[in-house]
Amino acid sequence: MKRVPATHRLAASAFLVGLCLGACGADKEVAPEPAEPAMQQCRRFDQLMPRFVDAISTGKTQNLKTVVENQLLKTSREDEPPPINDVLRIIFSTLNALASKPPEPGGTKDAYCAPSSAPPPLNLANEVCELRRSIEVLVHQGKGLDAIAVIEPQLQGIIDYMTGTGTSVDKAPHYEVAAAFSNLCSNTDQCRMSNGLDLIIAFTDYANTVPGRKLVQDLNTLGTKPSLTAFLAPQNLTEDGFVAISRALIPAIQGADPQALQNAFDQLPLSAELKADLGPIVEDLKVILQTPTLIEPTRKALNCLTVSDRNSDVVRMLYRLAIRDMRPEFGVTRLSQVFRQLQDVDQRGSLIFLANTLAKAVRSDETAITAAASTCKTLLSTSVPAGQAQSNAQLAMPVVADLLRRGLVQESICAIDTLLFGCSGGAQPACR
């Protein structure tokens, strides 16, 4: 395995220490240089993320700590580093590699990035500069916070469903979903994390093509159709019916046969109006089926899902959250609105560009991919290891659910905003 140079390890350690001690200071608040009388003092880390710090100090994260220490920081061989080390290594080495690139066009040695008002074309942009510009618009200016406001309750809903806690409606744990996700992370002939990265790369490449842009537009239009929202109602669509639709369409897509897809679609028990509204999407899928660079990773991903989740537990979870419980953050209308808002804000296409770049960077390191898959599989495992009374999932997931309820996502976004843009750079709408 490649070793990270000492200078890189030192830089990573310094970053982590700085993050933990404070956004602008350690034990004492340290104000920026008094250039203007109105400058604010930066808050310490415990002030930026008070609920997270409180959860740690009161022992509420102990079970998660147990899993990390007993399962993720130990290996069977002394000369072999634990998988989580490689996960951290790929994060810092990727950022280091991107930051080592020369200034982008319009930038200088002193001003690494071009002015935000005049960025270079995406194909010439420096990835770190583009990431900072995206965060500035989406987070620091607050234009993408609506999307975050949907993602947070979605994560909360999924983990509460698995653990049977918090906002879960039926209060019954569903660790079978954790088992399915753990299987998805297995490095087997059927499932490899590299396939997922290949899928991200292929779709982000496809999104910049004419057929890709048409697919996005057709999806936006479909989200506004009354026929779809009426169909996706519990009185019109049962759980078994939802599962049956997925089981009919997945093989048709895996077969990469446009006519088979059309036949499967024609046989679905849908109204004539809904079939007409879905028609453009079916035509878009036919194009995808005939695009080898996209259909191959799609087939591999669907095959992995089919093998890992034979009872369709993930599909059943989505039905129960979106349709049975009618949670708005999973609703087609809400998701379509957020997607369109992101498109309006990110007309430059920075998010797709960054997803593509980061996926390619991680994809180039097979050791890190294997380590990340092992970490994911171990954390979500529902088998009870020797020496533990409960499985890793039973120990770790309730802690994650509690941290989300405490506002971990919102606090993290506020902390990132403060670390990147300082404490006097504006209103900081993420820090509410």
Task: Describe the model.
The protein is built from 21 helices and no strands. With 432 residues, the chain is mainly α.
List the helices and strands and how they pair.
Blueprint: H1 6-21, H2 45-48, H3 50-57, H4 62-72, H5 83-99, H6 127-140, H7 145-163, H8 175-184, H9 193-206, H10 210-222, H11 226-231, H12 239-254, H13 258-266, H14 272-289, H15 292-308, H16 313-324, H17 332-345, H18 350-363, H19 366-379, H20 392-405, H21 408-421
Helix pairs in contact: 4-20, 5-19, 6-18, 6-21, 7-20, 8-19, 9-15, 9-18, 10-14, 12-13, 12-16, 13-14
Regions with little confidence, pLDDT below 50 for 5+ residues: 1-39
Largest sheet: none
Strand portion: under 5%
Put simply, the count of helices is 21
How many strands in all?
0
Approximate helicity band:
55-70%
What form results from the Cα inertia axes?
A: globular
Mean pLDDT: 82
Report the order of strands and helices. HHHHHHHHHHHHHHHHHHHHH
Concise summary:
By secondary structure, the protein is an all-alpha fold. The protein is built from 21 helices and no strands.
Salient structural properties:
432 residues, 21 helices, single chain, globular, mainly alpha, disordered N terminus
